[in-house]
Amino acid sequence: MEYKQQVQVEQNSLQCQNNSEGIDMRQERRSANYKPNIWKYDFLQSLSSKYDEEQYRRVTEKLREEVKSVFVEEAVDLLAKLKLVDSVIKLGLRSYFEEEIKQSLDIIAASIKNKNLNVEENLYCTALRFKLLRLHGYEVSQGVFNGFFDGTFDKSKCTDVRGLIELFEASHLAYEGEATLEDAKAFSARILTAINCSAIESDLAKHVVHVLELPSNWRVLWFDVKWHINTYENDKQTNRHLLALAKVNFNMVQATLQKDLRDVSRWWRNLGIIENLSFTRDRLVESFLCTVGLVFEPKYSSFRKWLTKVIIMILIIDDVYDVYGSLHELQQFTKAVSRWDTGEVQELPECMKICFQTLYDITNEMALEMQREKDGSQALPHLKKVWADFCKAMFMEAKWFNEGYTPSLQEYLSNAWVSSSGTVISVHSFFSIMTELETEEISNFLEKNQDLVYNISLIIRLCNDLGTSVAEQERGDAASSVVCYMREVNVSEEVARNHINNIIKKTWKKINGHCFTKSPTLQLLVNINTNMARVVHNLYQHGDGFGVQDRHDNKKQILTLLVEPFKLDLPEFSF
Prior knowledge:
Blueprint: E1 8-11, E2 16-18, E3 23-25, E4 28-31, H1 41-46, H2 54-73, H3 78-90, H4 98-114, H5 123-135, H6 161-171, H7 179-194, H8 202-213, H9 221-233, H10 240-271, H11 284-294, H12 301-324, H13 327-339, H14 350-374, H15 379-403, H16 409-419, H17 422-433, H18 439-448, H19 450-475, H20 481-489, H21 493-512, H22 520-540, H23 552-563
Antiparallel strand pairs: 1-4, 2-3
Helix pairs in contact: 2-10, 3-4, 3-5, 5-6, 6-7, 6-8, 9-10, 10-11, 10-12, 11-12, 12-14, 12-15, 12-17, 13-15, 14-15, 15-16, 15-17, 16-19, 17-22, 19-21, 19-22, 20-21
C-alpha cells in the first residue's frame, strides 16, 4: 500500500555516511514532514482488559446455548431464519454458530428450488435471502427479482425502505453480466438518496446513510461490528441473549487484540530503527489495525503479528522509493532485494542499509517462525520473490517520476497492481495460515488465485489514488491513475475520478465471482484476500486515512476497536 503525505524538497537533516570513502555525503532529498506518532509506547503498554478471564468464557458458552435454542424454537419461518442469520453475522458471531447458519441456509436455499415458500412479492425477504445465499456461495439467480422487475423495477412493489436497503446491498454482490442487479443498484440508490431521512424513524435513517456511504460487501465486518451492536440494541425485536453475547464477545476479542498490540509495540520499540529513519512514517497502530481488518478472531494472533511487521516494512520501503532515494540508489537497492544479498547495499546511505537489513532479518525470521508453527518450510523463496517484484514495481514508478513521464492508464495499472503491495500481503497471508503443503499444491493455489489477487490489488491501488490524488497533484508527485487518465484522454479530474470509480465497481464484480471455494482453509485465505480490498475502502474513504494519523475518523476508529470496551452489567447472565 502506498501512502504519502505532503512532500517538499529540503536538505535532509540525516547525514548518510558513505562507508567506502569515510566521508559525510549531503544530498538534496525529498522529505514528507510526517507528524510524530500519536500512539505512544507507554499508552499501548497500559492497555488491559478483564475480559480475558475465564468467567467471561463461561458466560459466552451459556449465552451461546440460549441463542442456539432460538434457531430451533423461534426462528421457524423463512423470514425469522433470515433475520436471525443476518443479525448473527453482523454482530460478529458467525464462528459461534457455523453449524446453525449452514443448516438454516440449506433450508432457505431448498425453498427456492422447491418453490414451497411464496415470498416473491416481499422485497425485503427476497433481497435478504439473495444476499445471504450468495454471500455463502449458494447458487442463486438474479431471476429471483423478476417479480419486481419487468424491464424496469416496479416502484409500487418497492416502497419498503428496509427492502430497498437490502436490494441495494444485494446488488453489490453481482457477477459480471448480471444486468438485472445493475438496474437494481441504480434503482435502489436513486430511491434511497431521495428519501427525506427526517420523515422516517431515526435508526432507519441512520441505516440509509450508512449503506449509501459504503455497501456492506465493501466494508470490513469487524470495523463495523460495534455500529451494528448499537443498532441492534435499539431494535424493537432485540433478543437480549444475542445482544449480551455480542457485547461480551466484542470485549473478549478486544482483550486479545490489546495483548497482540502490546506484543508488537514491544517488538517495534526493541527494533529501534525508526530513530534512524527520519524520512519515513511511524504507523505501528494503523498497520496493526489493517491486520485486524484481515482477520480479527483471537486464534490468529501470530498472523496479526507477522502481517503487522510486513505492513510496516511496506510503508518504510514505499518511503524509500517515494521520498528518500535517488534513482541510482534505488536501482542498487532493487538489485539487493532481487539478489537477497546484504553485500549489494554497502555503497548505499546508512539509512537505506538499515532498511534493507531490517527487511532481510524480518523476512528470514518470519520464514523460520512459519516453519516452526505451520511447517511452512517452503515459505522463504516465495516471500523473497514478492518483495523483489514489489521493489521492481516501485523502481519503475520512481523512474517514470524522474523522467517526467506520464504513462497511459493501462501501462500505469500493469505496474501499479504490483506496487500496491497486494501480492506481498497475499503471499505472506498464505504462509501465515497454511499448514504443511506440497510444493505443487502451493504453486497450484497461488496460480489459481492469481486473478483474485490481481483484482484485489487493483482495488488497493485505485482506492489509494482516489484518496490521495488531490494532495499529490498539489505537491507535484508521480502521476496517479487519476492523473494518467486525465492526461491520456484530456478530461477533467471529475471525469477521471468517475472513470476510476467505475473500474472499481467492475473489478468488484470480478472479485465476487472468485470468492468461494469448497475448502474451509482455502476459503479463509480467500476471505483474507478479499478483506484487503475492504480495508483500503475504509482507509481511503475520506482521504488519506493512513498518512494523516490524527484525523478524527481515524482516531475514533482505533479507540472504538482497540481501546474502549462495552460497559456490561451481566449479573442476570451469570447463571
